[in-house]
Structures are given as structure tokens and as C-alpha cells.
Amino acid sequence: MNKPIALIIEDDRDVLALFRHVLDIAGYHTEIVLNGKEAMERLEASQPDIVLLDLQLPGMSGIEILTRMRADDRMRNIPVVVITAYAPYAASLPVEPDLLLLKPVDINQLSNLVQRLQVTQGAMKEPVHDKVTGLYTLPFFILRLTFSLERIKQSEFRRFGVLFADVAQVNELKRKIHIDDLNRFLHALADQFKVALRPTDTMAWSPRDEYFLTLIEEIPAPEVPLRIASRARDSMKKFLEDHDYGLGLRANVGVLLCDSGYEDTQQIMRDIEIARSYLREGLYTNPSIFDRDMLKKK
Q1: What residues in the chain have per-residue pLDDT under 50?
Q2: How far is CA 165 from the centre of its chain?
């Protein structure tokens, strides 16, 4: 079956009908489970591409299902959209879903989410880790980015950041060393990139454009993104100084702050490319923080 699979775990048949209708139109094959215990058995036996999960279920609660999924290596990367009518439950979840929707669910909101996910369906079938760096693949990162964007669209006052880091001289390095040595270099550089971040962060490598990415989901204070970017730059800088190959290697690091004004992930990735080019050209200090309005003015 070529269609991506959506598992809907919900015991309200009216809500079920709504979800199934939207997902069917979007090209998903939908499977429905009404009981939490049966849902857990289904998840242990198969791997859907996305799960829509109610929190209050007979047999086993949605909270326990989500907790078990996040603790299981095989299931932890399956996107989970939690649906609940009880906001206090949502605020006290022991682990975070990819997205939270409060009942009654807005049909337009759900449709918009599904449309955004259509662009990233490939990430649901491909391996989620890059072979060279061990980080997440770019398609999987875009999938996570889709959920982050949908979250801030529910609250126009929230923002998240996308940190990016690249070594402008990688093409020169390719001509100088063997491919096996280059892959070892990139893997070790990825390890240095990870040192500055939290193990739970979504960190990725784009092999086509040759740069690192990570999501900064929460920005508790304005200075936090710059502090994280400085840590990443300094960690990579020491490694590059020790493995320079006479090229003057350096890491350019920046953060794009994303708000609800972004229509889709393509716009975010396009702005990241613009910000990367500004850093390569030396138009901004390294690291720098960018946002949508700032890049528009250029």
C-alpha cells in the first residue's frame, strides 16, 4: 500500500467521522481503534505514519499510550497529535506530543495541518537518520518543523527558532581529502554540533546543501537563541581549528526566529538560505539572529 497510514485512537464516533473524512481526502489510509488497550496492541504490531490520539479512552489512557510510544525506540519518532477536551490534562502531560488540539477541533485547522503534512509524507517512509552524521534526515526535520509551525499558529504570540550551522569551505575540503575521510570529518563535526545542544533536540543534516539544523522549540528569554548559537559556534570552532587542512575552516552559525506569519515550511527554509548567504558574505556577525521582518527589508 502506497498511501501513508493514519491511526485514529478515539472513542467519540462523531469526532472519529470528522478526522477520518479530513484524512481520507488528504490521501491517507485511515485505521480506527476505539479502545486504548487495543490501540497499544496495534501500535506494537504495526507502525502507522501518524497517530491522532484522544487522552480519555477505555482500556488504557491516551497519556499512557503516549508515554509508552515515546519510551520505545521503534515508536518514538511516529508523529502524535493529541486531541482532548480538557486543557488541564494537556498542561500536565508527562511527555510532549508533536501537536495538541483542543476539542471541539476546528475543521479548518485540522485541514491546514493535513495539507502541510502532505508535503512531508516522504519523511514518514524513509529512514529518519542520516548515514554519515547520525543526525536526523532533512525530510524528517521538515516533518518536525511542520508541527512546530502549526503549534505557533495556535498562539500568535509564540515563536520558535531554527538554528543553522555550516562550513562554507566544505567544497574545497571535498577536493582535498578522500570521501571516506570527509565522511569521518562530517560525523565528528556533527558530534561537536550536538555537544552544544540538548540530546532531545531535533538535530538534522542536509547533505545536499551541507549544513546542520536544529529546532529551538522554547524561547524563554530573548537572549537564549544567541547563547545557544554561540555555544554551537564555539564547540565547532575548536574542532575545525584542530582539523583545518590548511583551508581556514570556520563554522557560520545563525538562528532564524519563526512566528505565525510564516505560511509554510518552504518559506522558513527559503529564509534560512538567505540568512546563510548573508553570513557567508560577512554581512552579519557570527553568530547572528534573524527574523522574517529583518530579512524582508534586505
Answers
A1: none
A2: 16
